[in-house]
Amino acid sequence: MLPNLPMSGLPVNAPYHHGDLRAAALQMGMERLESQEQPDLGLRALARDLGVSATALYRHFPNKDALLDALALEGLNRLGRSQAEAATKAGGGRDGFTEVGITYVEWAVEHPALLRLIYNRVGQVDLAADDPSVMGEALYQLRTGIAATMPDGMSKDQRAAAALHAWSLVHGLAMLILDGQVPYDPAMVRKVVLMTDFRDC
Amino acid sequence: MLPNLPMSGLPVNAPYHHGDLRAAALQMGMERLESQEQPDLGLRALARDLGVSATALYRHFPNKDALLDALALEGLNRLGRSQAEAATKAGGGRDGFTEVGITYVEWAVEHPALLRLIYNRVGQVDLAADDPSVMGEALYQLRTGIAATMPDGMSKDQRAAAALHAWSLVHGLAMLILDGQVPYDPAMVRKVVLMTDFRDC
DNA sequence: CAAGCAATGATAACAGTGTCAACATAAGAG
DNA sequence: CTCTTATGTTGACACTGTTATCATTGCTTG
Fold first, then answer.
1. What is the model's pLDDT at position A54?
2. Is B199 in contact with A197 (Cβ distance < 8 A)?
């Protein structure tokens, strides 16, 4: 999604036009989200480190929220891809389902700031915006991805409830770990996720 | 915890000294947390609406984070009280345990901004602070409160895993609802919480 | 009761932020 | 080659948290 830019840092002859400032800004934002727990995604700070004036970013994003939304969307796509990958790799059935849940927590631990940004932004998407389906699409994929890995032999309602149960469990576990309430222990994560049993629903 | 102040609004003869600015600030902050989804807890905004200068609050809080910490602590105490209340009211056993979990979600729905503040602040408590146990104490109470309502007949490890499972489930469900990912449906909440079964651990 | 000290408040200022309007430059289309 | 459009810059405004300095009040102690 983010095209490869010349990684040689800031251009030496800094031309008046940057080339692809939008992609560069998103890339720098993503790098910070990946490398720092509480990244500084301020417009001025980003522009400064991009070697560009503070208001240049307004030619590519209507405001700061739009930039954050773009980053959150990219993060949502990456999370969805990771989930889909885990689902196919683990195969179907109960075991596959468990692995997908564990993958969710692992991904959250590996990309804490990005996961936080996703849920911060997703919560206040303006459904009356120009393109209401961009973020919603990615979210829909994530949710159906979760539902798709449900064990067989359930009614539609059961599947919905079970999907919500599973999503809540791994999301809550991830958030508690990210918030420092629970130490990250892969064995414990597996144990907790395995405690879910759908026999009585 | 917050002593009752004269509720007659701002004093007419606005004396030089406010009386109990700290309590008034906390009360106003708490009111905003209870009545707005995304309350403005800025120091200047609070001071302005309190009819006081921007820097007056620095006589009662070393910085903004300290004010937010105080609000989060109060929120944590309220949440803990609500949990304890639900625990005793529901009695022990599996049914009581279920009710406590449901209460957690209900409390989150009723106090969304406050729950968010709690977990935002709790995540970055400075354990080297002057009084490292204030917030930690309240959290410890909340966690033991959860563990205390576990069904009987479990080993210590089982209890720990089961408590983490339960906490993760209701916390995740609450967060998804607060973030607008899932509509709040009490029946659905009950259904999802009831899906947890500890028979196979 | 008076004096003095500590607690509490106000003002001014600094650095930082998001955002807008006006202006400058480069790139591409006719 | 010219003109339009895209892109970047400068300056400004209204915010924010925070600090240093000064003003006022109230409590304590002689």
1. 94
2. yes
Task: State which amino acid sits at residue B189.
Answer: V
Q: Mind listing the pLDDT tens digit for each residue in B100-158?
A: 899 999 999 999 999 999 999 987 765 444 454 566 666 776 777 777 777 677 788 88
H/E stretch holding A74: helix A64-90
Contact A161, B169 (CB under 8 A): no
A142 in Cβ contact with B141 (< 8 Å)? no
Question: Quick one: pLDDT band at residue A86, thresholds 50, 70, 90?
Answer: confident
- The mean of the pLDDT values for chain B is 82
Q: Tell me if B141 sits within 8 A of B130, measured CB to CB.
A: no
Per the CB < 8 A criterion, the answer to whether B180 and B189 are in contact is: no
Window 161-200 of B: residues touching A by CB (8 A cutoff) are: 161-162, 164-165, 167-176, 178-182, 188, 191-192, 194-200
Min Cα distance B26 → chain A (Å) is: 24
- Nearest nt to the CA of B44 via C1' is D16
Give Cα B70 distance to the centre of its chain. Answer: 11
CB-based contact (8 Å) between B147 and chain A? no
Residue B65, CA atoms < 13 Å, CB-side half-sphere: 8
Q: Is A56 on the interface with B (CB under 8 A)?
A: no
By three-state DSSP, how is residue B182 classified?
Answer: coil
Percent of chain A with pLDDT over 90: 49
User: Which pLDDT score, from 0 to 100, does residue B180 have?
Assistant: 87
Q: Which residues of A touch B136 (CB under 8 A)?
A: none
pTM of the complete model: 0.86
Protein residue ranges contacting nucleic strand D, Cβ under 7 Å:
A 16-19, 21, 47, 52-56, 58-60; B 15-17, 40-45, 54-55, 58, 62-65
Residue B22 pLDDT: 96
